[in-house]
Known about the structure:
By secondary structure, the protein is of the alpha+beta class. It has one domain (8-178): Gcn5-related N-acetyltransferase (GNAT) (Aminopeptidase, 3-Layer(aba) Sandwich). The chain has helices at 21-36, 48-52, 87-93, 117-131, 146-154, and strands spanning 12-16, 59-66, 69-77, 100-108, 136-141, 158-163, 172-178. A 7-stranded mixed β-sheet has the order 1-2-3-4-5-7-6, with helices on both faces. The termini are far apart. Coenzyme A binds next to strand 4, helix 4 and helix 5.
Amino acid sequence: MDSIELQSSHVEYRPLTLQDKSTYFPTILTLVHAESQQPQSLLKCWSPSFYEQFWTSDGSILGALIGETLVGFALLGFSALIPAIWVSYLDDLGIRREQCGACRSIIIAASYRRNAIGSALFQFHMGYAQAQGLKHLFGTAHPDNTGSLRLFQNGGFSLVGQIDAHESMGPRILLHKSL
Ligand SMILES: CC(C)(COP(=O)(O)OP(=O)(O)OC[C@H]1O[C@@H](n2cnc3c(N)ncnc32)[C@H](O)[C@@H]1OP(=O)(O)O)[C@@H](O)C(=O)NCCC(=O)NCCS
C-alpha cells in the first residue's frame, strides 16, 4: 500500500460525539477489518459490539481527522471498560477504579502510518483522559508490537509486567501511567 506524507498541521484531533456516530462508526469498523486482514498484525480485533461500547458514557473515541476523513482512532475506556486483568493490581495499589481509564485500541489507517499521527493522537488521548478527571491510565501491548510500545514509552508509561495470554490476545506487556 502506498504511504502518504503529511504536514501535521493538516490533522485535527478531537473526541467523536454521538452526532458523529453515523458518519464515523462505519469507518472505524472498516479500519478494524482492514487491520484484521493483515497477516502480520499484532492487534486484537474485536466484533463491532466491542467498539459500540465506546459511544456510550462508558468510554470515549478520539479521532484523527484530515478534513472530513477519519484516518485513525483511539479508544478510552472508563471504569466499566477496564479489563479484569487490572483489578487485582488496582486493589494492591489501593487505586479506586473510577479514577482509572484504559487505552483499549489505537489504529491509524495503514497508508497514513509513520507520519507521527499515532503519537499525536496518543498525546491527545492522554490529555483528554486527564481532563476527564482520570488519575491513572492502563494499557497492554503485544511484546513484538514496536509501534505500540513506542507510543506507550514516549507517553511516559511504565512497565508493570508481562503475561502469557489475556482474552485470547496472546502475550501482553502491561503498562501504567499516573496522570
Ligand atoms: C501503532 C500505530 C498506531 C502507530 O501509528 P503511527 O501513526 O504510525 O505512529 P507514529 O508515526 O507516531 O510513530 C510512533 C512511534 O512508533 C514507531 N513506530 C511506528 N510504527 C512502527 C513499526 N512498524 N516498527 C517500528 N517502530 C514503529 C515510530 O518510529 C515512532 O517512534 P519514535 O517517535 O520513538 O521515533 C500504527 O502502526 C497502527 O495503527 N498499527 C496497527 C494497530 C496497532 O497495532 N495498534 C496498537 C495496538 S493497540
